[in-house]
Amino acid sequence: MPAVVPSLVGTEDALLQQLADSMLKADCTSELKVHLARSLPLPCSVNRPRIDLIVFVVNLHSKLSLQSVEESLCHLDAAFFLGKVAFLATGAGRDSHCSIHRNTVVKLAHTYRSPLLFCDLEIEDFRAAMAQRLVRLLQICAGHVPGVSALNLLSLMRGSENPSLEDL
Amino acid sequence: MDETLAEFFRRTILKIPMTEMMTILKTWNFLSENQLQTVNFRQRKESIVQDLVLLCEENHASLNDAAHLDIIYTQFHRHQKIWDVFQMSKAPGDDIDLFDMEQFKSSFKKILQRALKNVTVSFRDAEENSVWIRIAWGTQYKKPNQYKPAYVVYYSQTPYAFTSSSRLKSNLPLLGQSFETHNCTTSLQEGSLGLDINMDSRIIHENKVEKERVQRVTQEIFGDYPQPRLEFAQYKLETKFKSDLNGGILAEREEPLRCLVKFSSPHLLEALKSLAPAGIADAPLSPLLTCIPNKGKNYFKIRDK
């Protein structure tokens, strides 16, 4: 089977690097190759494999990271939004350092009809757990799990994970 | 041992708080472990100090040794002093000489001793290529007063020297002269700015070009060497409020918005240098931040042009 390829997009290199390392350590029956990008569009490159899942990492402590993600979203092909995009917000644990309100990212994820995950990536155990979760998500998006597609998963996740704005 | 010297030892050691006593004595490294073990540190402080002075006598301690102890004490208590900072400027046409610490110390001492008969000059190397210079001043007829020394801390890789002591003011021109013979050098230390890029081939970094650009720009602005240690920078803004939004209460005002922005950090310039490579800010950084070492100041007033 071809490798499963997630692309982690975010401004803070150290966080992406750590998450990538954690994902490589997680259980994955398929071969894993992680792409790290600061922003989209990706530089023109001939030999890029198909990307199975894009995770936009927003650091709630950094307005720049949100701004960069918002700008990147404009460059993404619409087809990805059918279950192959996820948002990951980090830094919620340190409330006093947050310069972006939780609701801002909730709204963003809602606008793009994609799941939003919260995880303080700086904490190793949380990061390891999230990495495992992302790997499972990735395998489904890559079509490596028979009977479940990315779109299935999206509609399943939407029910429990993302309350509609009216509920907030 | 000379009585005045013994008294100087006594008073210097007495100044040291008991909580710091062992650390300072060990840093001083003049009394051996064995000797220190013979002292009963559970006595009254005066008795401990007396025992230590006796040990110093046993070791034939000199004024130089006492001066070193004094420097170490001051290094531990540097925050209790008020420091002035001087920036040396190069005269046009000066060459960049290579800096030799030993040569500097020797010529510094010679100049002071030649000019003033009675002066005690002592040196101690410290972190980041700096040297602490202790100067006890005397007069033509009086021996140096060891109890009111002046300190100069010179960071050899920079044009800055820090001085402490009000008595220094009259002797400033002389100190200036002792520095003049040694222009500061820009002997750069090789240090790498590198991000820790994981060599794992399963991780692919897109945007390599952008990363390299950021590295390059940061290096151009900050250089390869360690930054001078600065703890804060303060910006007083007296500018009119500018807003993207039309209207809004503050936007209409003619008077400038008064606002104070203070950046503080244990090592501000290194922190600023790491912002762009860490992805927390865009490169190049605002010139208001990057001009700090060039302008040699960290208090800024910003007005509308």
TrEMBL record, chain A:
<dbReference type="InterPro" id="IPR020987">
    <property type="entry name" value="Centromere_Cenp-M"/>
</dbReference>
<comment type="subunit">
    <text>Component of the CENPA-NAC complex, at least composed of CENPA, CENPC, CENPH, CENPM, CENPN, CENPT and CENPU. The CENPA-NAC complex interacts with the CENPA-CAD complex, composed of CENPI, CENPK, CENPL, CENPO, CENPP, CENPQ, CENPR and CENPS.</text>
</comment>
<comment type="function">
    <text>Component of the CENPA-NAC (nucleosome-associated) complex, a complex that plays a central role in assembly of kinetochore proteins, mitotic progression and chromosome segregation. The CENPA-NAC complex recruits the CENPA-CAD (nucleosome distal) complex and may be involved in incorporation of newly synthesized CENPA into centromeres.</text>
</comment>
<keyword id="KW-0963">Cytoplasm</keyword>
<keyword id="KW-0137">Centromere</keyword>
<protein>
    <recommendedName>
        <fullName>Centromere protein M</fullName>
    </recommendedName>
</protein>
<keyword id="KW-0158">Chromosome</keyword>
<dbReference type="GO" id="GO:0000939">
    <property type="term" value="C:inner kinetochore"/>
</dbReference>
<dbReference type="GO" id="GO:0005634">
    <property type="term" value="C:nucleus"/>
</dbReference>
<dbReference type="Pfam" id="PF11111">
    <property type="entry name" value="CENP-M"/>
</dbReference>
<keyword id="KW-0539">Nucleus</keyword>
<dbReference type="InterPro" id="IPR027417">
    <property type="entry name" value="P-loop_NTPase"/>
</dbReference>
<keyword id="KW-0995">Kinetochore</keyword>
<dbReference type="GO" id="GO:0005737">
    <property type="term" value="C:cytoplasm"/>
</dbReference>
Automatic annotation (TrEMBL), chain B:
<keyword id="KW-0137">Centromere</keyword>
<keyword id="KW-0158">Chromosome</keyword>
<dbReference type="GO" id="GO:0007059">
    <property type="term" value="P:chromosome segregation"/>
</dbReference>
<dbReference type="GO" id="GO:0000775">
    <property type="term" value="C:chromosome, centromeric region"/>
</dbReference>
<comment type="similarity">
    <text>Belongs to the CENP-N/CHL4 family.</text>
</comment>
<dbReference type="InterPro" id="IPR052011">
    <property type="entry name" value="CENP-NAC/CAD_complex"/>
</dbReference>
<dbReference type="GO" id="GO:0034080">
    <property type="term" value="P:CENP-A containing chromatin assembly"/>
</dbReference>
<protein>
    <submittedName>
        <fullName>Centromere protein N</fullName>
    </submittedName>
</protein>
<keyword id="KW-0539">Nucleus</keyword>
<dbReference type="InterPro" id="IPR007902">
    <property type="entry name" value="Chl4/mis15/CENP-N"/>
</dbReference>
<dbReference type="GO" id="GO:0005654">
    <property type="term" value="C:nucleoplasm"/>
</dbReference>
<dbReference type="Pfam" id="PF05238">
    <property type="entry name" value="CENP-N"/>
</dbReference>
